[in-house]
Amino acid sequence: MSDPRFTAKRAERTEIPRPKRGEGQWALGYTEPLNKNEQSKKDDSPLNVRDRILHTYSKRGFDSIDPADLRGRFRWMGLYTQRKPGIDGGKTAILEEEELDDRYFMLRVRSDGKLLPAAAVRALGTIGVDFARDTADVTDRENIQYHWIRIEDVPAIWERLDEAGLHSLEACGDSPRPFLGSPVAGVAKDEIIDGTSALAEIERRYIGNPDFANFPRKFKTALTGHPSHDVSPETNDIAFVGTVHPEHGPGFDVWVGGGLSTNPMLAQKMGVWIPLEQVPDVWEGVASIFRDYGYRRLRSRARLKFLVADWGIAKFREVLENEYLGTELVTLESPASPVGHRDHVGVHEQQDGKRYVGVAPIAGRVSGTVLVQLADLIEQYGVAGARLTPYQKIVLIGVEPEVVDELLDRLDEIGLSARPSNWRQNTMACTGIEFCKLAIVDTKNRARDLVAELEKRFPDLDTPITVNVNGCPNACARTQVADIGLKGQLVMHEGEQVEGFQVHLGGATGLQANFGRKLRAHKVTSAGLDDYVTVVVTHYLADREDGESFTTWVAR
Ligand code: SF4
């Protein structure tokens, strides 16, 4: 339901015609729930499920959980049921959700771009060891994701997270999802502006705030003051991107309406300059537009990108300024998008002369044990802490130059390489069929094997080629913006349906931002993936012109 407080806040309503057929937009008076998700959120605030988990479900066990909480409101606490083991991808679309449900949960813990000191990394590791069968993946939204969580253990896990200054609140659900912050905020020598305080303020004001806990769907935030645009701003609902005004100095441009999945759209640049202190207010304004004007009738149209596409960026800015901010923003041409790596892998000098060191697990797969070992190294070598990255990497911050070489060797010993091959550095994978109920194919193990094979076949590749492996069309590992984007689906092979991928070629972010071409003929079985990538890469290497990138070659 539309809350009268929100209406009162608007300064002045921009003239927006009421569509004949309601899209469920609260601001236009369509406040009655039009689908079961909207009904569930109206029946009870999803934030209330926390108390039931702590005081009822964790004590009485899995079977005591109300189905509306289990498959709906639990997400606001970062909890999803995981996929029952042994159900193949062909059953994903035909089974009911409850038939796919395991009695264990996936738990997502948000880091929101924070620096994680040794104690926090250790807490994250021991939770994996003690409660999650040693799982602990690094996701491309800077989360740690566990599996095999029992409902009985959730209170103890939350207690440990709380002690470490972490939480899982609104890590999933129709809510302000985990923020992507620059992994090198406050330390990179070439930083334009440090946005750490703004992200912390957004978290303080709005996470767990009932006024911002019922969006039409998820709402993804990214913020960076680094010139590499290291938070994939093109693919977020709202992104703040560092820019310099000739008179006012460093600040942020605002991009809105990015998102991938089945109707991919790149974020549109507002072309403004806002100071650091104004970031939380602008976040509130954009989030409020999404809440009030976002489409709620069809889940498939309920992301901010559809509203931005329909309105256009000029009208979106007008509504933001007139109805929500009550002030005009300063116009400034958007900063040029960069080329090159955004993942910070390797050793780099900081502003203070120390080093930051980016390391690459394989396709984000870590474990509780590895995180505990990492915490040991952070302590032993006097490192300030670690940050997670949107590319499934980990960056150690504040390393003394004289310990770098020894530390790199120790990191290699625990499977975290700061000197990875192209394939290891540039391959990402989503959760996939191992645990995800929407998955059609395996991803993490497939990506690991692909990396190992390509390292043998192309050991000296001289130019980066990115490979993003996704288990279904939802594109959690950003199918459409990789050089080789893989979308899990069943494909025909010798008269039978088997696990495979639709291939998208030549996608990119940054200067060459565009979606990979979906080539209908390019469908490959999972078993044939190594050979398929080999053929494509061999062809590119033989055919490219001097300095020609994979993206440009595909576009020819
Ligand atoms: Fe699951 Fe599909 Fe997302 Fe992969 S892309 S994590 S399979 S929903």
From TrEMBL:
Reaction equation(s) it catalyzes: hydrogen sulfide + 6 oxidized [2Fe-2S]-[ferredoxin] + 3 H2O = sulfite + 6 reduced [2Fe-2S]-[ferredoxin] + 7 H(+)
Domain named Nitrite/sulphite reductase 4Fe-4S: residues: 173-326, 426-556
Enumerate the UniProt keywords alphabetically: 4Fe-4S, Heme, Iron, Iron-sulfur, Metal-binding, Oxidoreductase, Thioether bond
List cofactor names only: [4Fe-4S] cluster
The keyword Lipoprotein is annotated on this UniProt entry: no
**Gene3D superfamilies, sorted:** 3.90.480.20, Sulfite Reductase Hemoprotein, domain 1 (3.30.413.10)
Q: Which Pfam families match?
A: NIR_SIR, NIR_SIR_ferr
Please report the stretch or stretches of sequence annotated as the Nitrite/Sulfite reductase ferredoxin-like domain.
101-164, 348-413
* Region Disordered: start-end pairs: 1-47
Keyword Metal-binding assigned to the entry: answer is yes
Biased composition annotated in UniProt, kind: Basic and acidic residues: 9-23, 38-47
The EC number of this protein is: 1.8.7.1
Q: Which principal EC class is assigned to this enzyme?
A: oxidoreductase
Q: Which PROSITE patterns does the record associate with it?
A: NIR_SIR (PS00365)
The record's comment on protein family reads: Belongs to the nitrite and sulfite reductase 4Fe-4S domain family.
What does the UniProt function comment say about this protein?
Answer: Catalyzes the reduction of sulfite to sulfide, a step in the biosynthesis of sulfur-containing amino acids and cofactors.
Q: What is this protein called?
A: assimilatory sulfite reductase (ferredoxin)
Species assigned in the record: Nocardioides mangrovi
